[in-house]
Amino acid sequence: MGVIEKSKIDITKAPEGVEGPGFFATRIDKVVGMARANSLWPLPFATSCCGIEFMATMASTYDLGRFGAERLSFSPRQADLLMVMGTIAKKMAPVLRQVYEQMAEPRWVLSMGACASSGGVFDTYSVLQGIDRIIPVDVYIPGCPPRPEQVLDGILQIQELVKSESIRRRDSEEYKQLLAKYKIE
Amino acid sequence: MPIDSTPLDFLPIALTFIVALGFVVTTMFVTHKLGPKRKSKIKEDTFECGIEVQGNARIPFSIKYFLVAILFVLFDVEVIFMYPWAVNFKELGLLGFLEMLTFVAFLLVGFYYIIKKGALKWE
Predict the structure, then answer these.
(1) Distance, CA of A115 to CA of A49 (rounded, Å)
(2) Which contiguous run of DSSP H or E holds residue A20?
(3) What local confidence, expressed as pLDDT, does residue A146 receive?
(4) CB neighbours of B57 closer than 8 A, spacing ≥ 6?
(5) What percent of chain A clears pLDDT 90, i.e. is strictly above it?
(6) Which residues are CB-neighbours of A18 under 8 A, at least 6 positions away?
(7) Domain count of the fold of chain B
(8) Is B33 at the interface with chain A, CB within 8 A?
(9) Nearest neighbour of B50 by CB, restricted to A96, A170, A185
(10) What is the rounded (10 degree) CA torsion for A14, A30, A149, A55?
(11) Does B47 touch chain A (CB under 8 A)?
C-alpha cells in the first residue's frame, strides 16, 4: 500500500492590501477580479474536434475544475466565458453572435484552435475566417487541435485578464467603441 | 420548574430574521449596482440556442396530456405505499395483506373508472 500523498491544493492568495490584527483592507476591484477569475463559468460552444479536446480538458486527468471552471453553463445567461471550439461555418456565425450577445456582462471570449481563430485549413467560401470577424476575442489558443495543456494555459490567460480588469472597464468609452466596431448594441 | 419567558427572549429570533432579510436585500442591491449591465433587444430576447424565436411559448396544448400526467402522478404516488408494506410484510401478516388488497382493489376501481371515462384515449 502506498502512502497517501498530502493534498497539494492551494487556496488563492489574497490580493495586496493593508493588514492588521482583525482586519484586512484592499481595493474592491482586486477582490471582485479574484472572485471572478476563480469561478469562471464557461459556455462551451463546441462545433468540432477542439470540442473533443475540451472534453479531455474537463475530465479527471487535466481537470479544469482545479481552476474553478468546472461548472459549464449551457445558457449564455449565466456564463462568463464563451469558449468557441471548432470550425464556425458562415451559417453558424449568426448563431454564435447571438449567443455572445445574450451573455451577461462581464463576459470573455476564448477562441480555441486554428479554425475558430482563423478558419484554419478551411480556407473556403463556407467557413468564417476567424470568429473575431463577428465578435471580440480575448484569448486565442493556437493548435489543430490544441492539447489540453494549451487549453489550461488559455484559461489561465483569461484568468489574468479577469483579475486585472478594471471594475469600470465595461462602462468605458473604449469598450463601447469596441462593441460598436462589431455593431453590437 | 417555573417557566418564566418574556417576549424579550424571542429577540434573537427576530434578529436572525432581520439579519437574513438584510443579507438578501444588501447582496441583491450591491450586485445590481456593482456589476456592469448592458441591455439590447437581442440580449433580452428568449434564448433559443442562438436561433431566432419562432412563435410564443404560451400556446394552448391538449388537455389530454395534462390528464395523463396527473393520472400518472396519482398512481405513481400510490406505489410508494407499497414499499413500507413490503418491508414490513411479515410483521403485518395476513391482516396487512388483506388491507393492502383492499387498497389495491380501490385503486383498480379508480383505474376502471378512468378507462371507462375514456381519459386515456388519445384519439
Answers:
(1) 10
(2) strand A18-20
(3) 93
(4) B46
(5) 69
(6) A24, A25, A26
(7) 1
(8) no
(9) A96
(10) 100
(11) yes
Mutation target for A interface from B38, B42, B44, B52: give the one with most A CBs within 10 A. Answer: B38
Which residue numbers in chain A have pLDDT < 50? none
| pLDDT tens per residue, range B61-106 | 777 788 888 889 988 888 888 899 999 889 988 999 999 999 999 9
Given A98, A106, A170, which is nearest B50 (Cβ)? A98
Between chains, do B47 and A75 touch, taking CB under 8 Å as contact? yes
A105 vs B51: CB contact, 8 Å cut-off? no
CATH architecture of A41-149+158-181: 3-Layer(aba) Sandwich (3.40)
Does residue B72 lie in a domain region?
Answer: yes
Q: What nine digits make up the cell of A38?
A: 476563480
* pLDDT tens-digit series, residues A38-82: 999 999 999 989 999 999 999 999 999 889 898 999 999 999 999
ipTM for the predicted complex comes to: 0.70
Q: Is residue B95 part of a domain?
A: yes
Residue extents of the structural domains in chain A: 41-149+158-181
Q: Can you give the C-alpha Rg of chain A in angstroms? A: 18
Contact A113, A86 (CB under 8 A): yes
Beta strands in A113-181 (DSSP E): 139-141
| Contact: B37, A167; criterion CB under 8 Å | no
Residue B81's domain comprises 63-117
pLDDT score of A29: 86
Is residue B44 included in any domain, yes or no? no
SS3 A96: helix
Chain A: give the shortest CA distance to residue B56, in Å.
19
